[in-house]
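Q: Can I see a sequence and its folded structure?
A: Here is a first one.
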Amino acid sequence: MLLNRESSGARWRTRPDGLEKVTGKLQYLTDRSAEGMLIGRVLRSAKAHARILGIRTEAAANVPGVYAVLTHEDVPGLNAFGIAFPHQPVFCADRVRYTGDAIAAVAAENEELAEYALSLIEVDYEPLPVVTDPEEALREDAILLHPEGNVLHRAEYREGEPEAAFASCAYVAEETYFTPRQMHTYMETEGGLFVPEADGKLTVYSATQHGLKDRMQLSRILALPEERIRVVSSPIGGSFGGKDELNVQPYGALLALRTGRPVRMHNSRAESVRAGLKRHPMKITMRTGCDREGRLLAHTVRVVSDTGAYATLGTEVLNFATEHVIGPYQIKHIDVKSVCVYTNNGVSGEFRGFGGNQAIFALEGQIDRLAAMVGIDPWEIRRRNLRKLGDPGPLGQPIAPTDGARQVWEALEACSLMVERRESPAREPYDPWTVTGIGAAIAMHGAGLGFGIPDPAGGRLRLAPDGRIEAVFGYEEFGQGLIATMEQMLVEQYGFAAEDLRIIIGDTDVVPNSGSSTASRATSMMWMALRRLVPDFAAKLTAAVERAGGGAGCHPGKGGMWKDGNRVMTYVELAQALSEPIVSETAFSYPTTTMERVGAHFLYTYAAVAVKVEVNTLTGRVRIVDQYHAIAAGPVANPQGYLGQIEGGAAMAAGFTLTEDARMDEGLYLTKNLDTYLIPTVLDFNGRIQVEPMEDLPEQDTYGPRGVGEVGSVCLAPAVASAVFQAVGKRVNRLPIEPELLQEMPFMSGKAVDSHVG
């Protein structure tokens, strides 16, 4: 099955939330309002690094229409937040470490008053040296940004004797790669509505990828029991990891409880740029060697990751990158050392691909360079070194057996782009200023949170009193199509009708702990949960029909219970006959490897990508005109959603590759809004995109479909870099690919263009 925008068939369904989205009727969390609500705003640091000598809020508090002005003194519980490590202050008390740091928050009758109140708050600063280079932060004489030092985390992996192995290598490639500070650029910036209820509870309508974790963190900050906090976390206008951490929630919650009135907060785009998370910029130095046939022998890697002012999930991202700089290749001698460093730059955090994007760009660049040294096709050198069915994972850990590497390699080898590449290896310009190139890359990408990190899953099926079958899960819908995928599973695999179902997610008062909607895990966990739930639920329905006099041996289907082709009882009739609802529940954990290394993965997806690019020799701009993606992620649960995730991931990767970098200077963003930050639009991304899923899994693989929310984003950058090399002969080691870099090529005014013109 080849998926593209023109694909059709019975399995292509209208998304349950699709009509409201395309008509603009869907109410996102930041669209909510409440009677008597106030507007909340946050005062952020004017300095990238400074001591706070004093904060004066009296003038702001005395403005008519201003109902609260809060600082660190007004936090009743823990003055810090962070999913894995509560490290970032809610309000800074004595020091600011980046310009997004919060110092105070106000609640006022309208936006103008709130902004005016912020302008009246006076903060006395003592400037401190600004540290923006992670390697400078590692120096012994560097100023310490935190009491524990400037290093958040170190990770390493060693196998064999790489230095000795390099001595026997016929060819050695050495290169340093640099990746940018990419923004999530979600449609809906951070925000929400915070409502103190009459019964003393607090209801939080705010975007997150894990409502139960938000509730836990807010409980610590507010010094309230978790059961007194309700988090409603869907629907969300995009996240991509950027709303995994708390953002406005502490401020909205504190202001609402202080004033006793609903408080609405919604970051402007400029504030989202200033305070929001970004992809970790990384410097990755690699030395990789092979024999004369191109078989990899030795591989050393040094990774320096800039986590910015606070930890967020910098540790976990670094662990993921450490694993994925080894990737899908069999290499006997390996030495990887990685470090994640604090600076006074904007805070880096979780982002689609989770460190894999940076790692795979560098690793695939090395493989291309070695292929050129050996004198063989870059795709062939990959085949000679790929992991095989039954091989361990990158860290030597036991993994679910997968033949994905071979599957995607062979699929790409046969695609039309690779045929064109083989038949026309010397790319000729087709007009006086445009040249084309075709490149390819491959990757394996871990799913789930990895060994040693709590990764719960579970769900509930319930026949409600009105006859609807409720599927209740603790996930969030932030545009990835989770609701549609769940509905499709229940309809296609278990025979229910869409009209029979009510899918309930994203409300901590009613959902079980299904774990986070992140790490490409939700589709797998839904599938595994339903495999556990539906047989038990069906048996309970059958037994209930028998007790109600409907006879034995029936089974659930569209609209009710069936036997011998006849409907015995509708779900409404069955519900009315019950004294209490029928409920089935399950709780389990995401599968993990048996090797005791924190973060090591067990389930992997494979992806291979071929792209064709055009390089404009006058401007140096690169445009992607054709793409082919082979994805080994098991059975396709939702073809439309599958294609959408690969297309969306590739579009985001195109920005990472060609245009996006939130530039900073001395800890201050030069990028302040979307007028100076270019993301791909439909005009940049209107070429052909084909997606071929590899749906077969090994017989012993019982884990079902894998999520594809990330894997579509990890291969495009190295494939484009390879295509650019074929087009203009320039090896790229830094993203985004700046036009100036390609304009400097001799090819741009050289013989190939002249001969074509002549």
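Q: Show me another, different protein.
A: A second, unrelated one:
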Amino acid sequence: MTAELVRGQNHPLSQVRLEIRVSAGTPIVAAAALSDEAGRIHGVEGVAHPGAPTQPGLEVSRQAAADHRLAVDLDAMPETVHRVSVLLALPVGGAGPVRFGAVAAPFVAVTGLDGAEIASYTITGLDAESAVVALELYRRQGAWKVRAVGQGYAGGLAELLTDQGLPQAQQLAGSINDAVAQGLARSVQAAPPRTADGDRSRQAAAPALGPDQGGTAPQPGPVPPMSPYGGQPSGGPASGGQGQPPGYPGAAADPSAVTQPAAPTAGGGPIDYSHPRRRNAAPPPPPPTAPPVAPGQPAQPVAGDATGWSMEERLYNQVWGMFEDLARTTAAYRSAVDFAESRMDKELEQVLSDPRSRIGGQGDAAREAARARYAQLVDRAREALDRDLAQLKAEADVVEPALPSAYARWDNPVWHAYRVPMEIPMALRLGDLRLPEADRIRIPMLVRLPLERGLWIDSGRTESSEGLFTDAHALGRLAMETAVAHAARLLAVYPAGEFTVHVIDPAGSGAQPLAPLVHSGVLAGPPARGAAGVTDVLTRLTQRVDLVQMAIRGGAADSLPPGFDTSQQLLIVNDFPHGFDDRAVNQLRYLADEGPAFGVHLMMVADREESSGYGPLLDPLWRSLLRLTPVPDDHLADPWVGHAWTYEPTLVPPGSEVLQQVLAQVAAARTKYS
């Protein structure tokens, strides 16, 4: 049961891993301060804020937004930390309100990882204040509690931090305001009012069409499916590991971006397939709210209801918000089942340890009671999981049809309205992610562009592929088809002339899967064959990395030779390590390590077992690439909650001509561009 606090009231915390959710009527800044028993902050490193969003056991948002999720792990707090204060402030220097008295009262909730509210607080009574200490988590006699504070400051963050005893209060406040100003244009208007469905911060709303999409906002009525592992525009959980989202860079404005036709949907309205583009203008107006939700009923999901400047960014954030929700609810279910099992084991052990209950009806009854309690706990956990999965499935059903081509599966109708874009999208879909408890829910696996790591498409057998392929060549051919699908998608989402693909196929074994790329004319040249071809391509690309590296590090990026190809380069290597000597392997390692920072990316199609003969020479190459598979395989792990995610590649449907149609448009645009 949720404890609704009033100012000064406290409540015990039974969990150490928490989320603090903040909802306001306007974009606000969220920060958190770590202080000692007297409430004093000893240095700027004790404040997590948009410019430095992570501290031990603490992570906050990187920009101003109407809704925030702050992650807290009290067990990870240093022993010297006795208070964690949640700070809210209005951004300065913008066109928004300058005092909390002019906006709706901010709402703050402390929740568990399963989304269940532990305590909430509505900060009322504010007037001229522009910064406020919302609440604090504090340690007393080894236990943690939450207290509603609501202390406001008319002098903003500088006055608040000064009152917290921070010597560098003025400088830190300026740093926070600078960091917020850089990302302020990417915040959106407030979500609809908080409803009775309090376990989910994203509520139903019709999508807002900003100036970057053209047209006018839809009229209230049926909401068409349009569209952060809530997605914060700063990265997600498990940042830095495989299968997780990196950071969120901005995109350049381009008023000449191509507008796509809208396709009808079963939801009764059109999907806007126009490529989102940024403009230096005010954020879009508040979206019209959907009809009110009946009490006790879950909010209807809406595609694009996450934070972000453009629909593309909101969809990106929403997808990774779905990833977060699935990871969190599955972790809560597994934890509940583990607890039920350990409790049953303990109770059965107690029964067996008592000689009086080992035999006879008393012992049987105790064992049956322990098993019944176990079943009851598991059933309750499964009920909560099914409820959350049903809501996630409903959200996935409206988000998937609304994704732009860079995020969409190959069977999405958006590809039939494809036109070569005028600017690079934020991210690219490499496949789908799922968990065994939620096999019907597929979360798009999005990676940021330009690629920060190369790709290794594993053509060898895995446990998942055992029994599926009797012919090893069939699995290798499927791996190469997967690589071609990824390469075609990269060619399709980049503007004409800004992405170039090279292929090394020493023995010609990939001729059939490579046919779409070869016949469409989108390759920089024919696939390189033999040892001489391998040497030629690798030498040219390593020299290109060296040249660009020297130019950039020497501050002479504009002095590259006339006619130098500045496009992003992708090298597809098939049938590795056949045809490669030690020098070629070292060149591949160099491209894998240094290439992405200077516009050269690597895609290896190889069998890890066959390549193991190179031993230590190959290991750095293997570790530097993101391993993908041509068949579903549970090899991607997120260190955020430790799940092993099953990855599924996005392949072109059998018999579909969509790949050839897309590549034909890319080839025509490249010819026109040249």
